[in-house]
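[User]
If only I could read backbone structure tokens as easily as an amino acid sequence. I have put the entry right below:
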Amino acid sequence: MPGPTRRSLIAATLAAPALLSRRARAAAAPWTRQEFERAMAQSGRHVELTDAQFAAIQARKPAAMKRIEQYLKEHLGSADPAVLAAFEAVPREYFHYLYDQHRATPGDAYEENPKPWALGYGSALSDYLGQAYMSQVCRPRPQDTTLEIGTGSGFQSALLSRIVRRAYSIEIIEPLGHAVGKIFAPLGYDNVTTRVGDGYYGWPEVGEGFDIIIVTCAAQYAPPDLLKQLKPSGRMVIPIGQPFKRGQVLYVYTKDDNGKVHSRRDVGVFFIPMTGAMMKTAAAAPAN
């Protein structure tokens, strides 16, 4: 059976009326080289490409989309149309940037062999297959409010923002967090809110809590404040393991309607470590 077309994927994601106007604004301008350079300039970053260079980047995207779809089918049994549509909608090349060098690297996007890419300041843009997997495991829905711990490049929250009602993200590395906080508005992604801070404590000011918490750095245990801020029926996806060591495992935490938290081991992963309070409290943490 043939897979879903690009148009049907986008239609499925845009079906919720509350999201339609926002995404229509974000998609109003065709993604051209000129639009790419405009958005980059508005975000405080510089890039110059020839038409041929920009076309070569776009030409690699269909193959990357096929890899994502196949990967999700092989590992999760199916590919969520909303997740595929989000990947189709978000220009990944916009997020390839070395912030400590002030240098754009869009030519690295949609690589044939997916891998993490340096962002500077010790942070990395995760490989797109892993991001697709974690996004689908989160089971994002149009009415959801999400929290990402470890903004990094901003790509993960950008993806979720194309599906959910509201996306929040926290970055502990101050220069990176301030810079990446400026990249969403030029794309029209007006439902993403970021701040610099220690994600260990979550975002308690969002009084309603979160339907989804996605942690994109390796913790040594599940931070209690994050579990408290998870709504009933909420999901938290978090890598747990020792810093810079193999053996990290992706855990999926769920909270039932009575507030009881359940957890399950998922797959082996490898992430940069969660810093801040996590490093200070790990020795006294409960074992998983």
Observations:
- The longest helix spans residues 51-76.
- Residues 6-284 form a domain with the Rossmann fold fold (CATH 3.40.50.150).
- The two ends are 42 Å apart (CA to CA).
